[in-house]
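Changelog-adjacent note: as of this version, every example in the card shows the full chain rather than a window. The one below runs 177 residues end to end.
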Amino acid sequence: MRALLVLALLAAAGPAGAAPVPEPPGYREDAFRTPTPATLRGARVVTTEEAEALWRAGVPFVDVMPQPPRPAALPPGTIWRDPPHESIPGAHWLANTGFGALAPETEAYFRRELDRLTGGDRGKPLVFFCLRNCWMSWNAAKRALSYGYGQVIWFPDGTDGWSDAALPLERLQPVTP
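Full-length structure tokens:
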């Protein structure tokens, strides 16, 4: 019985008994694809099942996955097509808004789109996501909290968790700034 308890505790601790990731005081500035905290102070953190219920209820979902840049080494005249981006159906892809530091234009775009999605009501819920182990959605949700949004919801498993649950995905285009 004691062995089972030890195994259960190790499994709950994560891979190889890894310590939980603490919340940093600010935004994550680099190494965006690493384990994230289990919490975000001021936000509600949801599982895939809870995210699905919110999605079915019509709560706006905000995908903050970065848009890949055109490769610098492409020869002049080469046609570049953005790779397809699969996401949660109906989500609003606000590309590049999850970095630790945002250019003033990107921050203005992010603020404007959040205002549009909530109709200016900062009390309306918004679900932020990216991929599993992606700090982009953590940063974006934290930033929304700093703007005064009161019902910030963070879905840390993002499209990975959604796909793992055999929920539908669709191709999205980023919302044009």
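Structural remarks: The longest strand covers residues 125-129.
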